[in-house]
Amino acid sequence: MTITDNTLQLVRLENAGELHLDWQSVEEIVGAVLARVRARDAAHRIRSHVPPGLPLLRADPVLLAQLLENLLDNALKYTAGAIDLEVGTDGDAMEVRVADRGEGLRADSLAFEPFRRGDLGARRGSGLGLAVCRAIAQAHGGALAVSRRDGGGSVFSVRLPVVESPPVPEPA
């Protein structure tokens, strides 16, 4: 996305932009994103763990895919080692974690602020990616957080609410 596209999307999301919500399979969203991102990852550094049978999310699949793809692209850009993608549930929330072994951001980093690049200002970019990711998570009633990874690197955690999906009608 261009800087203009990211800026417009951030403004829309922060002003209660319209989401196209429907019941979504996280396994399918993750699979589609991994197919695109792995095509740009010649070293095959992304390791994923997505258990079967996860609950459906009421979400906008395009926005969730953008959030996940941006987190993975950032991890590929800022680390030379393996990147771990894990999805799981914790009570009434689903958590998607992207963990790398890069330089790492401080937990109090400004990276989530628009046009701020956190601690890694030497790299190219607009400084909007993580702000857009956080806005997408918040628009879905969730949150995006960063923490230091034991042994070095960062862990980006997206928590999204899991609500009971409607019953599936039985065939007649």
UniProtKB/TrEMBL annotation:
Reaction catalysed by this enzyme: ATP + protein L-histidine = ADP + protein N-phospho-L-histidine
EC code(s) of this entry: 2.7.13.3
InterPro entries: HATPase_C_sf, HATPase_dom, His_kinase_dom, Sensor_HK_Regulatory, Sig_transdc_His_kin-like_C
PROSITE patterns: HIS_KIN (PS50109)
SUPFAM superfamilies named in the record: ATPase domain of HSP90 chaperone/DNA topoisomerase II/histidine kinase
Pfam family, one: HATPase_c
Domain of life: Bacteria
Keywords: Kinase, Transferase, Two-component regulatory system
Domain Histidine kinase: 1-164
Annotated Gene3D superfamilies: Histidine kinase-like ATPase, C-terminal domain (3.30.565.10)
Annotated protein name in UniProt: histidine kinase
Species of origin: Ramlibacter terrae
